[in-house]
Amino acid sequence: MATATQYKDRQFLADSVTGLLLAGVGHVTAPPDAQKNFLVVDDKTDTSTIEQTFVRFTEERKDIAILLINQHIADRIRHRVDMYTAAFPSLLEIPAKDHPYDPEKDSVLKRVRRLFGE
């Protein structure tokens, strides 16, 4: 069970969705570190970069409350996504404009289904 101390500093949303950046969700920490709470991924983005960012957002940064990841990007690091079980940041796989959501791939939904014996 999560305690208030586990999430008191979590105030940001990490996402891979450019549209949310346009809505003002993006944040960059103060220099000299200047860490972003987002990663814009395209066809040229290395899978290792995606994986390193996932680890940074889920294990190293303590100010991120929710991690949104496009499902087709999550598929590139599926082994990491499927192993992720922490409450914070919450991990949500979402569709992309050109990639519809497939509930059969969603790691959180798979765990819920197992919990209910489906």
From TrEMBL:
Leader sequence range is none
Q: Name one Pfam family in it.
A: ATP-synt_F
Q: How does it sit in the membrane?
A: Peripheral membrane protein
Q: Name one GO cellular component term.
A: proton-transporting V-type ATPase, V1 domain
The molecular function terms in GO held by this entry are: proton-transporting ATPase activity, rotational mechanism
Location(s) in or outside the cell = Vacuole membrane
Superkingdom of origin organism: Eukaryota
UniProt KW keywords? Hydrogen ion transport, Ion transport, Membrane, Transport, Vacuole
Q: Which family does it belong to?
A: Belongs to the V-ATPase F subunit family.
Q: What's this chain's function?
A: Subunit of the V1 complex of vacuolar(H+)-ATPase (V-ATPase), a multisubunit enzyme composed of a peripheral complex (V1) that hydrolyzes ATP and a membrane integral complex (V0) that translocates protons. V-ATPase is responsible for acidifying and maintaining the pH of intracellular compartments.
The subunit structure is: V-ATPase is a heteromultimeric enzyme composed of a peripheral catalytic V1 complex (components A to H) attached to an integral membrane V0 proton pore complex (components: a, c, c', c'', d, e, f and VOA1). V-ATPase is a heteromultimeric enzyme made up of two complexes: the ATP-hydrolytic V1 complex and the proton translocation V0 complex.
Q: What is this protein called?
A: V-type proton ATPase subunit F
